[in-house]
Amino acid sequence: MASDIYSETIALAALFQSAAQIQRVARFGAVDEHAIAPLMRALVITSPNTIEDVYAPKRVIPGLNQLLTSLYPKEATQPKNAELIKIAFSIINLEANLEKQSMVFAQLDKEVDKLRSDVLLLHPDYEDAADNVLVDYDIIKMYSKIYSNLISPNFPKLIIYGEESYLRRTEFQEMIRALLLAGIRASLLWHQVGGKRYSLMFRYKDIIERARQIISQQSI
């Protein structure tokens, strides 16, 4: 895949969309199938040729809008955005540490390949399925299990703030872990297409402008 600001922006949008949905589930116990579905689908796309094979631009509009608010310096200091940005950067750091642990990273690669086979066995048309299929609870549990078995034991746990009554519920815990895995997928893709932490520090205006252009193109 080519390294360009367009691909970086799409991958970042998916990352911030993951972070926003983690925050939504933890705070309100709310599951937005439309926003979560494309993030779950991306987990089984293992041999993409383009960024759009992984994330259709129209499906990451929520993440693109989140970028517009999160990357503006004044907006980023707002409590809800500051917390969301912290989640996103925690996922970026986790994914970077994951890449440094070659054995764990290699095992994750194997697990994802197996995951794809298992998901397609359950839903052969999963890549083109409707949102309710993409967020099938049995599949969410598969994603959650990979995070629990491979990521959680090998890296410091991420602190997710929210309502304790929601954070205690098994189905929301599993959804959050699945979204964390989806965030790792987006962060990895962001790095693969040339994304660096300095991109967010020194190129945020370019990213914001590209996000605006993509949103505008999708609304035509």
Layout of helices and strands, plus pairs?
Layout (H helix, E strand, L loop, with lengths): L4 H24 L4 H10 L8 H4 L6 H10 L2 H4 L2 H22 L1 H21 L8 H4 L2 H15 L12 H4 L2 H23 L4 H6 L1 H15 L2
Helix pairs in contact: 1-4, 1-6, 1-11, 1-13, 2-11, 4-13, 6-11, 7-9, 9-11
Keywords: Cell membrane, Cytoplasm, Membrane
InterPro entries: HflD (IPR007451), HflD-like_sf (IPR035932)
Pfam family, one: DUF489
What does this protein structure show overall?
It comes from Candidatus Anaerobiospirillum pullistercoris. Keywords: Cell membrane, Cytoplasm, Membrane. The chain starts with a helix and ends with a helix. Helix 2 crosses helix 11 (170-192). It is built from 13 helices and no strands. It has helices spanning 5-28, 33-42, 51-54, 61-70, 73-76, 79-100, 102-122, 131-134, 137-151, 164-167, 170-192, 197-202, 204-218.
